[in-house]
Amino acid sequence: MPKNKKQRKLIDKVLISFGVVATIALLGLGGLAWWTYSFTNSTVHSELAAQKIFFPPLGSPALASPKIGPYLNKYASDQLLTGPEAKAYANHFIAVHLSEVANGQTYAQVSAASLANPTDLTLKAQAATLFQGETLRGLLLGDAYAFWTVGMIAQIAAIILFISGGVMLLLVLLGLGHLATA
Question: What's the alpha-carbon Rg for the chain, to the nearest Å?
Fold first, then answer.
């Protein structure tokens, strides 16, 4: 066998070996990314389901505000179960109601005023309401929506990795075909 043919077969074997390793790695990472997507999606769903939060019914006074209705009408009467629903509820229901508690002041502002005037029960109640509302809003945005978003990114990554793994597998098979005819 001529030297060129031996070198070509060696190069084919090395590239095929690399392709096999790359295929295994891409498909393995794709599986891990898909598991991440599945885990985050099911965790967000089950945690939100356990809270039993429902959007107000369509046509109810709770959805009448132009700051609320246009964003939440599509979810009317539904149970809050997904990241986008958590974001909508946090930003267009809780946040709107919190802005009405103390003339738009934040928890930090009302809390500072309450500490400066400890006998003012109205400020104390407003601080408690704002704290609870901002905590729930933060949990919906930070835990539910953000975690859900990570899951969606993992799903996209998994699909890209699976497609890349499939392409690499095809290249390996073509390389094996080439090696057999060389």
Answer: 28
Contacts of residue 49, defined as CB under 8 A and 6 or more positions apart, other chains included, come to: 79, 81
From the centroid of its chain, how far is CA 90?
15
Q: Could you list the residue range(s) of the whole structural domain that residue 22 is in? A: 3-181
Confidence of residue 2 (pLDDT cuts 50, 70, 90): low
User: From the DSSP assignment, how many helices (H) and strands (E) are in the chain?
Assistant: 7, 0
Q: Is 54 helix (H, G, I), strand (E, B) or coil?
A: strand
Q: Indicate the number of domains in the chain.
A: 1
3-state secondary structure (DSSP) of residue 147: helix
pTM: 0.83
Higher pLDDT, 1 or 16: 16
Tell me the per-residue pLDDT of 104-153, one tens digit each, with 9 for 90 and over: 899 999 999 999 999 999 999 999 999 999 999 999 999 999 999 999 99
- Scanning 52-145, the segments in alpha helix (DSSP H) are 69-72, 83-89, 95-99, 107-116, 121-138
Nearest to 123 by CA among 135, 137, 140, 107: 107
Q: Is 48 helix (H, G, I), strand (E, B) or coil?
A: helix
- Alpha-carbon distance of 173 to 177, in angstroms, equals 6
